[in-house]
From TrEMBL:
<dbReference type="InterPro" id="IPR045562">
    <property type="entry name" value="RecG_dom3_C"/>
</dbReference>
<dbReference type="Pfam" id="PF00270">
    <property type="entry name" value="DEAD"/>
</dbReference>
<keyword id="KW-0238">DNA-binding</keyword>
<dbReference type="InterPro" id="IPR012340">
    <property type="entry name" value="NA-bd_OB-fold"/>
</dbReference>
<keyword id="KW-0227">DNA damage</keyword>
<comment type="similarity">
    <text>Belongs to the helicase family. RecG subfamily.</text>
</comment>
<dbReference type="InterPro" id="IPR033454">
    <property type="entry name" value="RecG_wedge"/>
</dbReference>
<keyword id="KW-0413">Isomerase</keyword>
<dbReference type="Pfam" id="PF00271">
    <property type="entry name" value="Helicase_C"/>
</dbReference>
<dbReference type="GO" id="GO:0003678">
    <property type="term" value="F:DNA helicase activity"/>
</dbReference>
<keyword id="KW-0234">DNA repair</keyword>
<dbReference type="InterPro" id="IPR007159">
    <property type="entry name" value="SpoVT-AbrB_dom"/>
</dbReference>
<dbReference type="InterPro" id="IPR001650">
    <property type="entry name" value="Helicase_C-like"/>
</dbReference>
<dbReference type="InterPro" id="IPR004609">
    <property type="entry name" value="ATP-dep_DNA_helicase_RecG"/>
</dbReference>
<dbReference type="Pfam" id="PF04014">
    <property type="entry name" value="MazE_antitoxin"/>
</dbReference>
<keyword id="KW-0067">ATP-binding</keyword>
<feature type="domain" description="Helicase C-terminal">
    <location>
        <begin position="546"/>
        <end position="712"/>
    </location>
</feature>
Amino acid sequence: MPIVTIDKASQLSLPTELLARLGLRTGDAVSIEVQDDGLMLRKVVSPKPLSDSFSRNSNHIQSEETQTLKDTVARKNLETRMQFIKGVGPKLSELLSKRGINTVEDALYFLPLRYEDRREVRPIQALRPGFTEVFTGQVITSTSKTTKGGRGFFETLVGDESGTVVLKWFNSNATFMKRIWKTGRRGVFTGEVSQFGYQREVHHPDVEWLAEEQDVNKVLAGDPVNFGRIVPVYPLTEGLNQKVMRKVMREIVDLFTVSIQELIPKFILNPMRLPGLRDALRLLHLPPTDGMLDELNSGRTLAHQAISFDEFFFWELGLALKKRGTALEEGIPFQVTHCYTKQLVKLLPFELTGAQRRVLSEIKNDMMAPHPMHRLVQGDVGSGKTLVALMAALVAVENGYQVAIMAPTEILAEQHWHTIHSWCSKLGLETALITSGLKGKEKAAVLARIADGSAQIVIGTHAVIQEKVEFARLGLGVIDEQHRFGVLQRGILRKKGINPDILVMTATPIPRTLAMTLYGDLALSVIDELPPNRTPIRTQLLFENKRQQVYESIREEIGKGHQAYIIYPLVEETEKSDLKAAAQMAEHLNAEVFPDLRLGLLHGRMTPEEKETVMAAFKAREVDILVATTVIEVGIDVPNATLMVIEHAERFGLSQLHQLRGRVGRGVSSSRCILMTPGKLSEEGEKRLRVMTSTTDGFRIAEADLEIRGPGDFLGTRQSGLPDFRVASILRDGAILEQARQAAFDLLASDPELIQTGHVPLRKELLRRWGQRLELGAIG
Ligand code: ADP
Ligand code: MG
């Protein structure tokens, strides 16, 4: 990219390369037009006559070049490092960097946490408790004091003609404060007013000192950034203060909002009354005097919406483009021969549910198509996804292809392998299990069977996508419990074959908005029916004092020939926490509570073989009670287990509890789940656990969970594939997300490759922002 420099004599020199491309030669005249978003250079057309076609042609090239140049300059401006901004030295830029602000663009998107109404200066008498107010006054007294509890604080009394108010600071340096808060000093104060009995107080106010004889009104008028308006309050780190931040932000907004490109077509924004990005950002950093304080504070102004829309729009556009991309790729047109699938159905001791059949036919249609399948199967815990995956796998095998099935944990991979292997051996098919525990010769042997194609169905953890694993002919990749993996892993699995079909499965019912964001490029199937004869799980919330009763229940259930789980949140007791760790508790239960019963222990620090042994024993009913940590959370299937006790249930997320609870209620006998808590619960904690006792509907639980915890925690892992939106919130802006998705998919329907004139910059921006994340490289 050509760089234009300004030399010491303030001369602008254009590199020859650029001159050549613009068709400029030494001696040519160039007009410079200052526009609100950059400079427009135009060659002053010489009076020499030119042939018509040539002139049209060169004008065309010229305007496109100028546009590119303008865009480049704008981009470069936004990428300006903070230390080059007026008033920002190395020290300040380091502090800003701690808050993730490295460039001008970062700063523009660094939105205020809240806003303070400083439009009015109030007489002290009229200060309203509960509001952040601005007032002026004089220090009357200042003293350091101690509370009844022995906590030191500093207090001053400030007054004006109308009355007085107490200002307080906790944890302050008294000597330092005494020096500053001298009797007689006048200032402008800002802070939240609170009322204690008859006394109004302001804690940790902001102050702007006035010099002697200085007129308050002049001072206020002379500082339009901090007074006489609604002022932004930024989330800061230590060492940064609001005043400095406001000054810097104002500078940046004034100089750089013009460099922001307005790319989303007006015909999309206008019907929603959304402003462009420039206006939106400017408004949020420098709200107008008639701004709506409440809307600003709740993040619901049109300006907020516009920025969220922009972020969602580009993300959804990427998903739409990706979805279209795979729809165009050449895939494997499988034939459904029913050779193995029919046989399996005959072997099953039950009938497929209607939902399983419907989803299977959706999958088969995809598999028969000459383009790669990208389908998400969503089905609540216990809805029978494994079988659906196996049936799909058999279709691929019938066509002479291999299948890879990837599960998030070793235990789950092993369990899948057991289930699938037992069916497949009856069909005369070869399977292989590959986990990270596999070493040496054994591993080499498995890898060889995968590479020569003799292993037809390969099951494993993420070990399946390790570099060394090479498939002879991968036709289908299945990812179980997709939310545990990221988009990246999906991509790597895909590359293990030549455009194989991909099936992803999730038991975490994902709320619609989140699903649109995470899996918007996938087709969706829902298994919305549980196999028959399942009796609903009864869930109770019990406190510590009912422990004996809980132990009785366990005994009772085992007396009926059933089995039970007891779940603990941790493996080993840490010094700080009072959690009863699984290991210690298992010992205690074994020795003192259930000496006559058979206990097994399962936790994350055991080796794969150890875990395998315990699970096998539990499945074979050689163990009555399985004491475990959350390693059993996903997918474990032991229908004879009918009671689940979850200790410290308050420590788990709702979706996690739902998954855990899903380990029971898998057979014909009625099941119970007991959530134990130590007694005192926060209001939020109680609310959460009440969701569990009131419903077993995974979708309702997921919605509640998402609301309580937010998307990042909800998904559990950093690499969950959730894009890092700077402003947009999936929770708050669900409606905007839907609109953005619609707009993006509509736009792509009208211009599938984004090649129409106005859309090219959209495509460029899309690739810049999300290209890598969405693996859109090829589309550029
Ligand atoms: P999930 O959807 O949670 O992965 P699984 O695939 O583990 O559920 O299935 C749960 C249990 O239901 C398994 O024991 C499985 O054999 C059984 N199952 C699957 N489909 C049916 C069906 N159509 N009728 C009865 N039981 C079924
Ligand atoms: Mg499963």
